[in-house]
Amino acid sequence: MQISHTRDSRKKHITTDYTLIFFFSIFLTLVFAVNDTEILTKVYYVFNVRVNEIVVITSITLMTLFLSLLKNPKFDKVFLFLFVSLILGIVPLLYVDTLNSYWGNFYPLIVSLTAYYVCSQSKVDFTERVYQTLLIVSLILSLQVVYTEFQYFSSLSFGNLSNVSIKGAMNIPIGSSNMIAAFLAPIIIFLLSYKRNVKTWGVVLISFYAILLCRSKNAILILSIFLLISIISKMFKRLMRDQSLTPQMKVPVIIGVIISLIGIFALFIDFANTVITDLRFAYYSPYMNTVLNYLDTISSGRIYVYHMELKRFSEHLFFGNGFGYEFGQARSHNWLLELLVQKGLVGFFIYLLCIFYVIKSGLAYKSDKFVFASLNLLAVIYLQGLFEVTIFTTGIDFLIWGISGFVISRVNYIKKHGLEPKSTSPSVHITHLKKT
User: Fold this and answer.
1) What number is the average pLDDT over the span 409-425?
2) From CA 24, how far away is CA 20, in angstroms rounded?
3) What angle do CA 139, 142, 147 make, to 5 degrees?
4) What are phi and psi of 172, to 5 degrees?
5) What distance, in Å, lies between the first and last C-alpha atoms of the chain?
6) What is the number of alpha carbons within 13 Å of residue 414 lying toward its C-beta?
7) Which of the listed residues 7, 69, 392, 412 has the most CB atoms within 10 Å of its CB?
C-alpha cells in the first residue's frame, strides 16, 4: 500500500494549511484545558490550564470558519445531513420537560458539523501532519495517565493494577479513565495502520501501558480483538501465497493457527482477570431471569439501562427526547440506542447516512494508507461506543468528524492529483499518473 511521488512533488504538496492548525489547536485545548467547575469536583495531578473549554473551542472554530469562507468553501452531502441533524436537535424543545444539561449535550452537534466542514476543506497533502498530531496527542495523554498513577500510588508497581480505586481518581483534562481509553484505543490502531516505525511503536507501547493503568476492560478487549484479527489475517494471506503447501494441507494449518491464537487470546484475558480485578464483572443484577441476569452481570448493568432507555425512546419515536437528562440519570452506554433516544428515528437514519457516505467514499480508496488507517480508527470508536458513553461527547465527536472530514479531503486530493487506485496481485498500490 504505497503512493509513489517524486521528491519535488512531495515538497510541493506537503504544506500546512488552516485545517491542520485547527485540528492541532482543538486537540491542544482538549488535552490541557480544565473548566473551573471541574476543578471544584475533581483532583488533577497533571499540568492543566484553567479556562472555559467551550469558549476556547468556539473561538478557534469561528476564526477558522471565517478563513475557510474566504477560500471557495464546498458543501457536500455529509455537511448537509449534519446541519439538518443539528436543526432537528432543537425540535424536542417543543414538547420535552427535561432541559437539564440540554445545551451542554447539544454542543457536540455543533462540534461535529464544524469539525467535519473545516477538515473536509483541506486541499494539501496533510497525511503526515495528522499522523504527527495524533502521535503527539497519544503521547501526552499517556504521560498524563502514567504521572497520575505515580502520584496516586507513589509508585508504578505492577501489583497496583489490581487496585481499581484509581479509576475514580484517574482524572486528566480530556476526561476520566474510560474516556481516556476511548481516545487512546482508536489512535493506537490509527498509528499502527498508518506507519510502523520506531517512533510509532514507542508511542504505542506507552499508550497501551496507559490503557492498562486506566483499567478499561472495554479498550483492552477491543485492542486484543483487533490484534487477533490482524494476526489471523496476515497469517492467512501468507499461507495462501505459500507454494510449498498443497491446498489440502493449508486448511488444517489455518484451522490450527486460528485455534491456537484464540487460545492465546483466552489465556491473555484470563491473566488480565487476575491482574485487573475490574475485568471480573463484579456486578449484581436485579433481574430474576437467568439469561437476563447473566447478560446484565457481564455487561455491568448495561441491560437494565438499555431497558429503561428503550422506554424513553418509545415516548417520542420520530424526533426523540432531545438532550436533557435528570440529575443522576444513566445514559445508554450504547451509541445506537442513545441516538434513537436523543434524535428519534429521523435523526437516527440521518446520522447513519452520514457514516455511510464517509465509509463508502473511503472504501473506494482504502489502498491509501491514510484512508485505511482512518477507517480503522472510526471502526474502533464505533465499536467502543456500543458499550461506553463516549460518542456524542465534545472530544470524541471532534475526533470522529475531524477524521471523517480528512478522509473526504484525502479522497478529493487523490482524484485531483491523478492518484487513482490500481489493483495488482497480490496487493493494491496507488500510483501517480501524470496528466496529459
Assistant:
1) 72
2) 6
3) 125
4) -130, 165
5) 25
6) 27
7) 392
- Taken in order 211, 213, 216, 221, the sign of the CA dihedral is positive
3-state secondary structure of 110: helix
Written as one letter, the residue type at 200 is: T
pLDDT digits (tens, 9 = 90+) for 151-164: 998 888 777 777 77
Q: Which ranges of 89-216 does DSSP label H, i.e. alpha helix?
A: 102-119, 127-153, 177-194, 198-214
d(CA 346, CA 415): 33
Kindly report the number of other CB atoms within 10 A of residue 365's CB atom. Answer: 22
349-385: per-residue pLDDT in tens? 999 999 999 999 999 999 999 999 999 999 999 999 9
The three cell numbers locating residue 88: 432537528
Residue 386, amino acid: L
Q: Quickly tell me which residue has 480528512 as its cell.
A: 406
What average pLDDT score do residues 44-63 get? 93
Alpha helices by DSSP H, listed for 33-126, are: 36-41, 53-68, 77-88, 102-119
Q: Where are the domains of the chain?
A: 7-215+276-432
Contact 376, 370 (CB under 8 A): no
pTM: 0.85
Residue 435 sits at φ, ψ, to 5 deg, of -80, 140
Q: Which residues, 6 or more positions from 285, have their beta carbon under 8 angstroms from its beta carbon?
A: 292, 293, 296, 297, 301, 303, 304
Burial class of residue 269 in the structure, from the number of CB atoms within 10 Å of its CB (0-12 exposed, 13-18 middle, 19+ buried): middle
Q: Residues 75-94: pLDDT tens digits? A: 999 999 999 999 999 999 99
Please report which confidence band the pLDDT of residue 430 belongs to, taking 50, 70 and 90 as the band edges: very low
In which element (H, E) is residue 422 found? strand 419-423
Give the residue-averaged pLDDT of 138-166.
Answer: 87
